[in-house]
Specification:
35% of the residues lie in helices and 25% in strands. By secondary structure, it is an alpha/beta fold. Bound molecules: adenosine-5'-triphosphate. Keywords: ATP-binding, Nucleotide-binding, Transport.
């Protein structure tokens, strides 16, 4: 019998409220509860302001919940930790360090020796296709290359949970697709049973369909859907057009108020 997957992330009735400058209270995350097993690739989708980044920041330990529990690998989190790596939309690369030193930095903080950390950093830079710029400064790299550095860094650091907040949002179409492949290849390279758990925030429905095992949809701080994507990987142009995938796409677009087919049908029916 297959081993049950370990619970990696558990949120129990999590709320986060903010007080705005005008004194009004805003509920950014409202009563969110879910469990994510180890190794799952989850995309968080929802309209702007629905609480995705707040959720990720709480999971990263950068923000406390107002109420509720956040448990990672069986432990209630208390601040950031090396078990969780984060990539933000804006670059998480230190401009004053060479590329290889950026990738090594977290390992150095954890006390790894110079030779070991160099080996790990070089390995991940090779994985993302950047061996040739190990000694370069970040200012010499394109936006897509900087994202590759950020991804290599977060994998090299060895966190079991990786959180990416719209990491490819500012990239052009081609680079974005290349980076999706780089991310999936790295995630896959760990092999079944040892894959990292990934939470990936995106506005892009097609990106979620290409990447996710599971898509959670948020609206006004609440989780409004939780959709399993069972299509095999690699997902190709053709497999993304299979009826199951198209049905999920319609569902997601409806959540975002963008399902033009439904709008046209509603018009015809009226
Ligand atoms: N520090 C803060 N102070 C006051 N309100 C905040 C603060 N941070 C977030 N909010 C509010 O909480 C809500 C959720 O914000 P959040 O950034 O989590 O949404 P999001 O889904 O990530 O949006 P986007 O996709 O545009 O990044 C919004 O109404 C936002 O204005």
């Amino acid at each position: 019998m297959a081993e049950p997957q370990r619970r990696m992330i558990e949120l129990v009735h999590v709320n986060r409220r903010f007080r705005r400058a005008d004194g009004q209270e805003v509920s950014a995350v409202s009563d969110v509860s879910f469990v994510i097993p180890e190794g799952e690739f989850v995309c968080l989708v929802g309209p702007s302001g629905c609480g995705k980044s707040t959720l990720l920041q709480m999971l990263a330990g950068l923000l406390d919940p107002s109420d509720g529990d956040i448990v990672v690998a069986g432990r209630q989190i208390a601040g950031p930790g090396p078990d969780r790596g984060v990539v933000f939309q804006k670059d998480s690369v230190f401009p004053w360090m060479r590329v290889i030193d950026n990738v090594e930095y977290g390992l150095k903080c954890r006390g790894l020796g110079a030779r070991e950390r160099r080996e790990i950093a070089s390995l991940y830079l090779r994985h993302v296709g950047l061996s040739h710029v190990e000694q370069a400064w970040p200012r010499e790299l394109s936006g897509g290359m900087l994202k590759r550095v950020a991804i290599a860094t977060v994998f090299a650091n060895g966190g079991r949970v990786l959180m990416l907040d719209e990491p490819f949002g500012a990239l052009d179409y081609v680079t974005r697709h290349q980076l999706q492949d780089v991310l999936l290849d790295l995630w896959n390279a760990d092999g079944a049973g040892t894959r990292r758990t990934v939470l990936f925030v995106t506005h892009d429905v097609d990106e979620a369909l290409a990447l996710a095992d599971r898509i959670m949809v948020f609206h006004s701080g609440r989780q409004v859907d939780d959709i399993a994507v069972t299509q095999d990987r690699p997902r190709t142009t053709d497999s993304l057009l299979l009826p199951d995938m198209v049905a999920i796409k319609h569902k997601l677009l409806r959540h975002l108020g963008l399902d033009r087919t439904a709008a046209r049908d509603r018009g015809a029916a009226a």
